Automatic annotation (TrEMBL), chain A:
NDH-1 is composed of at least 11 different subunits. This is NAD(P)H-quinone oxidoreductase subunit 1. It is a multi-pass membrane protein. One of its GO terms (molecular function) is oxidoreductase activity, acting on NAD(P)H, quinone or similar compound as acceptor. It comes from Cyanobium usitatum str. Tous. The gene is ndhA. InterPro entries: NADH_UbQ_OxRdtase_su1/FPO, NADH_UbQ_OxRdtase_su1_CS. NDH-1 shuttles electrons from an unknown electron donor, via FMN and iron-sulfur (Fe-S) centers, to quinones in the respiratory and/or the photosynthetic chain. The immediate electron acceptor for the enzyme in this species is believed to be plastoquinone. Couples the redox reaction to proton translocation, and thus conserves the redox energy in a proton gradient.
Automatic annotation (TrEMBL), chain B:
It is found in: Cellular thylakoid membrane. PANTHER family: NAD(P)H-QUINONE OXIDOREDUCTASE SUBUNIT I, CHLOROPLASTIC. This is NAD(P)H-quinone oxidoreductase subunit I. The keyword ATP-binding does not apply. Residues 55-84, 95-124 form the 4Fe-4S ferredoxin-type domain. GO terms for molecular function: 4 iron, 4 sulfur cluster binding; iron ion binding; NADH dehydrogenase (ubiquinone) activity; oxidoreductase activity, acting on NAD(P)H, quinone or similar compound as acceptor; quinone binding. It is a peripheral membrane protein. Belongs to the complex I 23 kDa subunit family. [4Fe-4S] cluster 1 binds at residues 64, 67, 70, 114. NDH-1 is composed of at least 11 different subunits. One of its GO terms (cellular component) is plasma membrane-derived thylakoid membrane. One of its GO terms (biological process) is photosynthesis, light reaction. Its cofactor is [4Fe-4S] cluster.
Amino acid sequence: MLTTTAPGLDLEASFEQALQGFGLSPAAAHLLWLPLPMVLVLVAAVVGVLVNVWLERKISAAVQQRIGPEYAGALGVLQPMADGLKLVFKEDIIPARADGLLFTLGPVLVLIPVILSWLVVPFGQHLLISNVGIGIFLWISLSSIQPIGLLMSGYASNNKYSLLGGLRAAAQSISYEIPLALAVLAVVMMSNSLSTVDIVNQQTGAGILSWNIWRQPVGFVIFWICALAECERLPFDLPEAEEELVAGYQTEYSGMKFALFYLGSYINLVLSALLVSVLYLGGWGFPIPVEWLASWLHQPIDAPLVQLITGSVGIVMTVLKAYLLVFLAILLRWTTPRVRIDQLLDLGWKFLLPIALVNLLITAALKLAFPAVFGG
Amino acid sequence: MFGFLKKVGDYTRDAVGAANYLTQGLAVTFDHLRRRPITVQYPYEKLIPSERYRGRIHYEFDKCIACEVCVRVCPINLPVVDWVMNKATKKKELRNYSIDFGVCIFCGNCVEYCPTNCLSMTEEYELAAFDRHSLNFDNIALGRLPTSVTSDPAVVPLRELVYLPKGVLDPHDVPDTAPRVGKLPEQVLESLPSGDAS
C-alpha cells in the first residue's frame, strides 16, 4: 500500500527532478530535499501553537464576555509571541535540591516525541514528511514516551506537587492510551493500513459522506475524549490542576524549560486535532470531492493549476478541520468541570475501554458483513 | 439474565444522560460567545458614579460646630474632633478634624446626622495609597474639592447601567442626550397628586 501513486502534487519528485537537471546525483538531490519539509513542518507546528494560544485566549474571553489580549498587535495576535519572548529571556532556574540532569531531560523528552509525531501528519497526498507504513502506530508509540518525561520532571523537581503531578500524568496517559489505540485500531481495520495517507484515501470516495465519522461515531467520541486526556486539556487536566497541585510537574520550572512544556502541550493539542481530522474527518478531503468539482467545471484533474488548487484546498481543509476541533476543545474547557482522579480512571478503564472493545468487535463484524462499506 | 440486561440498560441511560448534560452545557457556553463584552477600559474610561454614591467624605471646617455628633453616630467613633473650650467666649474652638479613610466603612452616618451639613459624600473613590497612614485625612485634605470623572480630560466618562436608555447594555457610543430608563426624580414628583409631594 505504500507505493500508491494516486495523482497529486508531488513536490519532492519535482524538486529532485529540478536539482538533477542541474547535474546533481539523485542521492544528493534527496539530501538537499530532506531538511525542507522538516523545517517547514517545525515552523508550521510553532505557528500553529501561536495561533492556538491566541485562539484559546480570545475564545476564552468571548465565552466569559471579556475582551482578551488587545494591545500586542491587532486584536492581540502578537500576545503569544510576546509571552514566548518573555520566557526566552527569563532566568533558567534549577532548584538546589533537584536532580539537574533529569530536571533538564524531562521537558526535552516531553517535547521531542510530540514534534516527531508530525512526521506522519498528511496535508495532502504527498504533503507530509514521510509516508511511514506504520504511521499511526508510530504516533501511538511515540506518545507513550511522553509520560516518561512527565514522570521524570515530576520526580526530579524534588517537590511534592511536582511528584504528584508527574504520577497523575503517567497514570492518565497510560490509562487513556489503551482506548485510544483501540479506537484507532477500528479505523485501521477499515482502511487495511496503518499509513495515515491510506487512511485518508480510504475516506475520499464520496466527499463528506465517506468520512469515517459516519462509520465510526463511537470511535470518534472515544478518540476525542482520549486525545483530550492525553493532551491534559481541561476536563482531564489533573496533572497540572492549579487549585490542587499549584502547577503539577511544571511547578519548579521557569524560563525556557517551562516554555518547552507549554509548547509541548499546545503542539500536542494541535497534533491531536490534526489526527482526529485525518482519522475521522477525511483529512485533506473537501466535503464535495474535488474530482467531481473538476469534472463539473470540465477541467482535467491532472492540469498543473488544478493540482495546485486541490493541493491548497487540501491544506486549508486539514487545518480548518483541526482548528474546528481546537475550538471545540476550548469550548469544552469552559463547559466541563475537572473530573476527580478516581472518576478519570473509572471513565478510562470501566467505560471507554469496554466501549472501544465493543466498537472494535462491531466494526470487525460489519466489515465481514458489508465489505463494500466498511473496507473489504 | 434480565438483571444483567437491566444493568446494561441503566448504564446506557446514564451515559446518554451525561452526554445530554454535556451538550446542554456546551450550548450555554456557545451561546455566551454571542454576547458582547461591556468592558470599561478602566484608566482610560471610567463609570460616572451615581448621585447617591458614597465616596470620600468632604468636610467644611468653617461650618463645623465641634458638636461631635459624627463621632457618636460613627460605628467605630472614627472622626477625631480636636477642640478646646474658649473660656472667654464660652464657646468651643475647633483646632483640627480628621477621618482615617483606611478605617472608614463609608456608611454615611456622619453625613446623615451632621447638624450643619459640613460633612458630605463625594464621588471620589480612587483612594489607593502606598502608605496607609496617608489615608488619614486632616481637615485640609478633607476640604479639598473631589476629583470628578466628567471633568478629567484624560478620561472618557461612561454611564452606569441604570443610567442607560432602556435595553442598552453597552455604555459606549450612547449619545449624551439619550434619556435614561425610567423617570427622573422630578418627573416622579410631577406625576404625584399635589400636596402629596411633601
